[in-house]
Design a protein that fits this description.
The complex is a heterotetramer, with two copies of chain A (about 325 residues) and two copies of chain B (about 325 residues). Chain A is α/β, with parallel strands linked by helices. Chain A is built from eleven helices and seven strands. In chain B, helix 3 runs parallel beside helix 4. The chains are: A alpha/beta (about 325), B alpha/beta (about 325). The interface between A and D is medium-sized, with 24 and 24 residues. The structure holds thiamine diphosphate (2 copies) and magnesium ion (2 copies). Chains A, D: GO terms for molecular function: magnesium ion binding; pyruvate dehydrogenase (acetyl-transferring) activity.
Chain lengths: ~325, ~325, ~325, ~325
C-alpha cells in the first residue's frame, strides 16, 4: 500500500484515537455501572479489541450496513452511534436506541447503518448477506460488513449465509474477530486450522488473516475486501486476530486461560500501539494524545450523566410494540 | 371472478405483487427453472427474471435470514420453504430474528417478510414432509400466520401478507394446490385477521383450518341431509385471530366442533378451546367443546395409516352427529 | 434429604447417572472447563473426565444431532442447549429426527436422548435469551417434556429422563438454579407423567409450571391469610401429561387458575384449558377457566418491563381473588 | 495401490455386479410399480449411481454404520439389507423394514448398520458423526460412513457435524455423492468450487474427489478414508462424482438440464463400465455376466411377489408406536 498511513495523517489519527478511546471508556463505564448494581442484565465487553471495529468502519460509508454481535458496543460506536443513546439503552431508558426493550445485546442504530447487535451467535450473518442482496437488487453500491466472533464459525447459520453470498457474489464482508475464544472454547482447538482464514477456501472466496490489534493492518485488509465487494467482485472473509481482556461475561471465572496469557495480550493494547505509531511518526504530540483522552473522558462522563437523567422505559405500550402498524 | 387452481392463485398473487412493487422478490429452493416442487411458481422466472425469482442452495436458515436482512433494508422478500417441515431448520431466523426485531429494536425498523411454506399430509411423503406446524408459529409474538383454505384466499391473503410490514407465515396446503375455485380478478386483498363464515347453520359451529375447511363444508352438506345444520368458520388468519367472529358463531349455535389436521396436543384448536372456555361462550355453550384433530403421532407413510391419523369427512360427520345428539 | 440448590441437584443427578451407567455422557457448550454458563456442571469435568463432559463448538444443531446418533448406537447422551432459545437452531434434530425416528423406523430403534435447556426470563437477558418454549416441544409427538420446579424434581426428573428410552426435553429455569430445597438422597427418581400437588385447598385450583409453581405457592400463602384456600398442582411432566390429577383437582374446587410464564397464545396452559373444557370438568366447573400467562410479547430488556410481561406473585393473588369472589 | 483389482478377482467382481444390479433392478421395479399406481408417495431413484454405495460398502464391516438419504435404496442394499423387506416397506406392508410407517425416505436396517435414510437433506450428517462418537466412546473400532448428496453441502447441519467431527477426530467418512444437482441446483453453480472436495480444506480434514462411476476408484478412495477413520486418524471427505439418470422425483420435468447431458452420462453407465473391465481382465465370461444378471432379476421378481403378498401395514397400534416402552 502506498496510501499514506493513518498514523501519519493528523486528522485520521485523531479520529481513530477518539473512536478507540470512546469504545474503551464506554465499556469501562458500563463495567463500573454494572459493578455498582446500576445496570442489569448481561454485558459482553470488547476491551482490547477496539482497533477492529474502528479500522473496519473507517472503510465504510454511512449508508453501508453492518451487523453486530452480543459483543457489539465497539461496532456500534465505530459506525457512528451516539454513546449517550447507547448508554440510555443499557440503563433501560425510554431514550435508549431500543426504548429499553433491547439492551446491550440488541442495540442498533439504523440511521448509521447498524442493523443490530444480536444475541444469537451467527444470527447476524444471514441478515448481513440479506442486506447485501438488497443493496445489489436496489442497484446501490452499498456494502454490508458482518462482524462476528470466531465462535460463530461453528454455526450452520454462518455456513449457509456464506454459501449463498458466494454463489450470488454479494457485496458483503465476513469480518471475523478472532479473540481466541468462543466463550471458553479455544478457536485453535475448535476449528483445526492454523490460519482461520483458510476457512474461506471451502467457499471459493478470498480469505485473509491480519493482526487485529494493528489498526493499519485491519484497515488495509478491510479496505481491500470492502473495495472488492463494492466493485461487485463478491464476498470475502477477513479474520482479525485479537484478544478479549475481560471475561466472556460477568459469570466468567477465566478457568480456560492463564493469567499470563491475559497479561501478554494486555501488553499488545491496540490503542497504546497506535499511539506509539502516531508519536513515532510525529503526527501528534504527547500533549495532543493527552488532550484527546481528556475530551473523550468528559464526553463520556456527560453521556452517562444525561443517560442517567433520562426517563425510564415505560411498560404501558408493550402490547402495541410487537407489530409494526399497518398503513391505513 | 375466474376459476383457477390454488397453485395458480398463489402464482397470480406473486406476479401481481411483483408488478405492483419492484421491491418484491421471491427466493427459495427450485422456485426458478424447476418451477417449484409443487409447480407453484411455474414459469414465473421467465416472466420476472432470475433476479426476482431466485433459486437458492438447500439452506433454509440462510434463505430466511437473508429475507430478514433484505426486508430490513428496503425490500419486500417472499421466501419459500419447500416443505413447512423444513422451517425447523430456519426456526432461529423465523422466531428469534424476524419475529422479534421490530420489538427488540424499539420500533426502529420493521421486517416485511413473507414466508410461504406448504404443509399437510395426504401425499405419502411420511413424517418429515407432512406436518402441520402452524402452532409453532402462532405461539411466537411478532409473527402473523395465515392458512388459506380456498384459491381466492390463497391469492388474497398472500397479497395482504406481502403488504404487511410484519413477518407473515403463509401456510399453504399441498392437497389444495390442485383444487380450484373462483378467484377475484385483479389485486383484491383478503384482509388479515378476518375470519370467513362460508356456511351458516343453527345446530353446531364447526371451526376448521386449512384442508379441513373444505372437508367440513362437505361434512356439513351430508349433515344437512339428515337435518343437522352446521355453521362453518374458517379463521383464515390464525394470528391475529378474529376471536369475535369465532365466539359469536359459537354462541349462536351453542355447540362447537373444532377441526384441525395438526396433532391434538397444543394444536391451534387448543387455543380456540381455551379462548372459548374462558370467555363469554363459557356460559352460553350447551355442550362441552369438542376437538377433532390429527392423532398425536408422526404422519405415517402407508396410505391407509396416513388417512387414519387425520380427520376425514366421515369423522367430521360422526363427531358432529354425536355432539348434536348427545347435547 | 439434604438441602441443595436446584443447580447442584442437576449436577448431582448427572454425576449419579454417570456413575451408575457408563453409557451416560454430557455434551454442550462450555459445560466442561467453564463449568456451564450457569455453573450447573461446575467441577464435573474433573470428576468425570473430558470424554464424558464434552465441550463443544457453538453448533446446537450438530450437538443435538450427534446426541441422536450416539443414542441410536448404544449411548445415553445428555446434551445441553445453553439457553433454551437456541433450541430454535436445533429444531430439526429435535422435532424431525429425535422425536420421529422410533416411529418412522417401525420401532426398530429408540433414541434415549436427554436435552437439557434452561429457559425463562428474569435475568435481564432480553428477547433471545429468556423464552419459555415448552409449547413447541409439547406439540411434537415422540418427545417427552419435563419442567422441574423444585431442586428435588430437578434431580429426580433428570434421572428418570436419562432412564427413559425416548427423547426427553428437560426445561430447567434460570431463576431456580440458585434456589434451594430438600433433595432426596441417592438415586431416587421422580417418575415421568405424574403431577405433584404441593398444596391442597378448597376454593380454587391453581395449575402452574416452572418458576410459577413457587410463585403460586407463595400466592396461596397470602390468599390463605384472607381465607382463600388454594390447591396448587404442578404437572412436572408436560408430556405425557397427568390429565387425571389435573382434572380431579380442578373438579374438586370447581375453579381453575392456570399460570404459566410463557406467552399466552398456544402456551401449555391452552392445552390444559382445552382438556378441561372438553372433559368431565366442563359440567363441574363453577367458573370459566382463567389463564394467567406471560403477555404475547417478546421479553424486554428493562427490568421494570421484563417484570411487567410475566406473572408475579401479586398477579396470581389478584387473579385468584377475582376468580373466587366473582364466581 | 498394489492390492489386486476388484475386476480381477472373480468372487469380488461377481459380488460387485450382483450388488449393482440388485440396486438397479430394485429401482426399476419401484419405478414400474409406481408408474402402475401400485406404489404411492415419492420415490427418489439412484439409477446411474450404483457404483458408489456398492464400492463404499465393500470397505465396511457389517457392524460399521452408515447414514443414508432420501435417495437411499442403493446404500441400503449395498450395506446388506434384504430387498424383499425393502420392497415390502415401499408397498406399505406390515413386513416392511419400518412396518409401513417410514417408506422409501426412512428405510433403515439397523441389523446391517444402516441407521436410516432421511427425508431431511443433511439430516443424517450429525447422526453419523454421533454414531462415530459413540463408537469411539465405546472403545470399538467401528466406522460411520455418512452418505449425502452435493445439495447437502449447502446445509448448516452438514457444516456443524463436520466441525465437531474434525475437532474430535471421529471415525466418520463424509461421502458426498455429487450427482451434479441438488434437485435443480447445479452443484458447480452452487458451491463455487471446481473441485468440491476443496470444501474439506476449511475444516482441516483430508478431501478427495473420485470418478463415482468407476467402482475401483470409489473403492480405493473409500478404503483409504475408512482406514484412516478406523485407525483413529479422524474424518475425511470423499466426493464421488456421478450422475442421476432419472428426474429428482416424479414431479421433475428436467427443465434444468439437457437431454444431451443425460445421454452423455448414460454412456458412462457404471455397471457397463465395470462389466467391461471384468471382461477385459478375463475374470468372468460374458455368459457369467449374463447369468449374474438373470439371477438378480429372478431374485428381485421373487422379492416383489412376496412383498406384494405380505399383509398390509395395520393402523390399529399407531398411538402405541410413538414412544419406546419404558422397561418395568
Ligand atoms: C446460537 C447461540 N449459541 C450460544 C450462545 C451463547 N453464547 C453467547 S456468546 C458465546 C461465545 C461467542 O463466541 P464468539 O463468536 O467467538 O464471540 P466473542 O464472545 O468471543 O466475542 C456463546 C457461546 C448464543 N448466544 N447463541
Ligand atoms: C432440509 C431439506 N430441504 C429441502 C429438502 C427437499 N429436497 C429433497 S432432496 C433435495 C435435493 C437434494 O440434493 P442432493 O443432496 O444433491 O441429493 P440428490 O437428490 O442429488 O441425491 C431437496 C431440495 C429436504 N428434503 N430437506
Ligand atoms: Mg471469540
Ligand atoms: Mg445431488
Amino acid at each position: 500500500m502506498n496510501a499514506p498511513k493513518i498514523a501519519e495523517d493528523a486528522g485520521r489519527a485523531r479520529e481513530s484515537l477518539r473512536t478507540m478511546w470512546r469504545i474503551r471508556r464506554f465499556e469501562e463505564a458500563v463495567e463500573e455501572l454494572y459493578g455498582r448494581g446500576l445496570m442489569h442484565g448481561t454485558m459482553h465487553l470488547s476491551i482490547g479489541q477496539e482497533a477492529v471495529p474502528t479500522a473496519v468502519c473507517q472503510t465504510l460509508r454511512r449508508d453501508d450496513y453492518i451487523t453486530s454481535t452480543h459483543r457489539g458496543h465497539g461496532h456500534c460506536i465505530a459506525k457512528g452511534a451516539d454513546p449517550e443513546s447507547m448508554m440510555a439503552e443499557l440503563l433501560a431508558k425510554e431514550t435508549g436506541y431500543c426504548r429499553g426493550r433491547g439492551g446491550s445485546m440488541h442495540i442498533a442504530d439504523t440511521a448509521t447503518g447498524n442493523l443490530g447487535a444480536n444475541g444469537i451467535v451467527a444470527g447476524g450473518v444471514p441478515i448481513a448477506a440479506g442486506a447485501a442482496l438488497s443493496a445489489s437488487m436496489r442497484g446501490t453500491d452499498q456494502v454490508a460488513v458482518c462482524f462476528h466472533g470466531d465462535g460463530a464459525l461453528g454455526e450452520g447459520a454462518w455456513h449457509e449465509a456464506v454459501v449463498l453470498a458466494a454463489m450470488w457474489r454479494l457485496p458483503v464482508v465476513f469480518l471475523c474477530e478472532d479473540n481466541h475464544y468462543g466463550m471458553s472454547m479455544s478457536s485453535r482447538r475448535a476449528f483445526g486450522l492454523a490460519d482461520l482464514s483458510d476457512r474461506a477456501r471451502g467457499y471459493g472466496i478470498p480469505g485473509v488473516s491480519v493482526d487485529g490489534n494493528d489498526l493499519q493492518a485491519v484497515h488495509d485488509a478491510a479496505a481491500e475486501a470492502v473495495g472488492r465487494a463494492r466493485a461487485g467482485e463478491g464476498p470475502s472473509l477477513v479474520v482479525a486476530t485479537t484478544y478479549r481482556w475481560r471475561g466472556h461475561s460477568k459469570s466468567d471465572k477465566n478457568l480456560y486461560r492463564t493469567r499470563e496469557e491475559i497479561e501478554e495480550w494486555r501488553a499488545q493494547d491496540p490503542i497504546v500501539r497506535f499511539e506509539r505509531a502516531v508519536l513515532e511518526a510525529g503526527t501528534l504530540t504527547a500533549t495532543d494524545l493527552e488532550q484527546i483522552g481528556q475530551e473523550v473522558r468528559s464526553e463520556l462522563r456527560t453521556a452517562v450523566q444525561r443517560a442517567h437523567a433520562a426517563p425510564d422505559a415505560r411498560p404501558d405500550d408493550l402490547l402495541e410494540s410487537v407489530y409494526a402498524e399497518v398503513d391505513a | 371472478m375466474s376459476e383457477m387452481t390454488y397453485a395458480e392463485a398463489v402464482r397470480s398473487a406473486l406476479a401481481i405483487a411483483m408488478e405492483q412493487d419492484e421491491r418484491v422478490f421471491l427466493m427459495g429452493e427450485d422456485v426458478g427453472t424447476y418451477g417449484g416442487a409443487f409447480g407453484v411458481t411455474g414459469d414465473l422466472i421467465h416472466r420476472m427474471g432470475a433476479q426476482r425469482i431466485r433459486d437458492t442452495t438447500i439452506s433454509e436458515l440462510g434463505i430466511v435470514g437473508m429475507g430478514v436482512g433484505a426486508a430490513m433494508t428496503g425490500m419486500r422478500p417472499v421466501v419459500e420453504i419447500q416443505f413447512s417441515d423444513f422451517s425447523a431448520q430456519a426456526m432461529d431466523q423465523i422466531a428469534n430474528q424476524a419475529a422479534k426485531i421490530h420489538f427488540m429494536l424499539g420500533g426502529a425498523v420493521s421486517v416485511p417478510l413473507v414466508i410461504r411454506a406448504p404443509g399437510g399430509s395426504g401425499t405419502g411423503a411420511a413424517a418429515q414432509h407432512s406436518q402441520s406446524l402452524e402452532a409453532w408459529f402462532t405461539h411466537v409474538p411478532g409473527l402473523k400466520v395465515v392458512m388459506p383454505a380456498t384459491a381466492d384466499d390463497a391469492k388474497g391473503l398472500l397479497l395482504a401478507a406481502i403488504d404487511d410490514p410484519n413477518p407473515v407465515v403463509v401456510l399453504e396446503h399441498k392437497l389444495l394446490y390442485r383444487t380450484s375455485g373462483p378467484v377475484r380478478e385483479g389485486a383484491e386483498r383478503t384482509p388479515l385477521g378476518v375470519a370467513a363464515v362460508p356456511r351458516r347453520g343453527t345446530d353446531l359451529t364447526i371451526v376448521a383450518t386449512g384442508v379441513q375447511v373444505s372437508r367440513s363444508l362437505e361434512a356439513a352438506e351430508q349433515l344437512a341431509q339428515e337435518g343437522i345444520e352446521a355453521t362453518v368458520v374458517d379463521p383464515r388468519t390464525l394470528k391475529p385471530l378474529d376471536e369475535e367472529t369465532i365466539a359469536a358463531e359459537a354462541i349462536a349455535t351453542g355447540r362447537v366442533l373444532l377441526v384441525q389436521e395438526a396433532v391434538r396436543t397444543l394444536g391451534f384448536m387448543s387455543e380456540v378451546a381455551a379462548l372459548l372456555s374462558e370467555g363469554e361462550a363459557f356460559v352460553h355453550l350447551k355442550a362441552p367443546i369438542r376437538r377433532l384433530t390429527g392423532l398425536d403421532v408422526p404422519i405415517p407413510y402407508a396410505p391407509q395409516l396416513e388417512r387414519a391419523v387425520v380427520p376425514q369427512v366421515e369423522d367430521i360427520v360422526a363427531a358432529a352427529q354425536t355432539l348434536v345428539r348427545e347435547w
